[in-house]
Amino acid sequence: MLPKKHRILNSRDFSQIYKNGIKVSSPYGKLMGLASPDDLGNCSYLLLRFGFIVSKKVGNAAMRNKIKRHLRAEAYELIKEYDTSFGLKKGSSEGDLSEIKFSFIAFPREDYDFKVLRRVFRGQFNQIIKRLGCSKLNYEKGILKNN
Asked: Could you point out which of 27, 70, 80, 109 has its C-alpha 20 to 30 Å from the C-alpha of 88?
């Protein structure tokens, strides 16, 4: 389960990401990312927040929940990799963090290959990080590294 500080909890955040965020689409869904304008220059310490939307068009409740479970697991892996590479220094506060919010909207499909879904989600995440101008971040072999 994603820790509460890494989740998007209110509809205002989803609306803000949808209106102003960078969008990357794939056959599995659309990932949108948004950083506040003053945060773009500082990418040394990022707080990643994720939210997932799976429409009733996608399938029954069991299928929708399974999709969200896989996406949350992949988001959790990204956060774990991020935290091991960029953990806050002692004495730093959460106010030192730059926040990037992500929202994923799943598209209806006949078949869901969950390994491919996770790989596509990771690739979309990578593209948004680059497009947000976090050139200090590099995604190599599945691990976030500081250049």
From this structure: 70
113 vs 119, 126, 129, CA distance in Å?
10, 20, 24
User: What kind and span of H or E run contains 116?
Assistant: helix 114-131
DSSP structure string for 62-88: HHHHHHHHHHHHHHHHHHHHHHHHHPP
Single-letter residue type at 62: A
Query: Is residue 39 within 8 Å of 98, Cβ to Cβ?
Result: yes
Please list the residues that pair with 99 across neighbouring strands. Answer: 47
| Among the four given CATH numbers 3.20.20.100, 3.30.230.10, 3.40.50.300, 3.30.1060.10, the one describing domain 4-146 | 3.30.230.10
Give tens-digit pLDDT for 75-121: 999 888 765 444 555 445 555 566 788 999 999 988 889 999 999 99
